[in-house]
Amino acid sequence: MQAPLVRAGIFGPPLHPLSQARRRDRRGAMTMLTETVFEDDRWQAFGLEDLAERAARAALAHLGHVPEDHLISVLACDDARIAALNTEFRGKPVPTNVLSWPSDERAAEEPGAEPEPPEPDPPEPDPTGGPLELGDIAIAYETCMSEAAAQGKDPAAHVTHLIVHAILHLLGYDHIHEADAQLMEAHEVRILAAMGLPDPY
């Protein structure tokens, strides 16, 4: 689910200290695309940090974007936390599986069209060489696990799909109109297939 547009950094400062370290490491080893903030330790045991990184890299690469040029914050939380966020930003006082907050409005003007690629604002390159923040994602443990069990899906595959889904929201994709939903789902299926995962639909 996409929450109303707010600036990146909803779970803390727009750039966390770890993000600053990644900026300085641009010439070194492969930098991380995702920054995971753990509020629920069950997500650490689940391996969400690595899973989110793989999903984000696959999604951006599929769409022709350079993963190292971007940054996504992921809040690994529980149902209570996401219900509070869902209430605050969407007026729905119930838990959900995943929420996303794009850092900018990127939706296409016409239903079924591809969104514009993300660009810095202003469009000039960042003089520090830092990544472009795409936005924030929150994902809830209990809802994700109960959905996977109810649908007979592997939990890791289900969570990977939800992360991919949320990242596409950050990039301007949506499913309000049928044509947009078909486009978004087609991208999800191809991204997951490239990761060796089954069609979630």
Automatic annotation (TrEMBL):
Nuclease in keyword set: yes
Single Gene Ontology BP annotation: rRNA processing
Keyword Hydrolase in annotation: yes
Binding note for cofactor: Binds 1 zinc ion.
Stretches for region Disordered: 94-133
Enzyme class label: hydrolase
Cofactor: Zn(2+)
Family membership: Belongs to the endoribonuclease YbeY family.
Protein name as annotated: Endoribonuclease YbeY
Gene (UniProt): ybeY
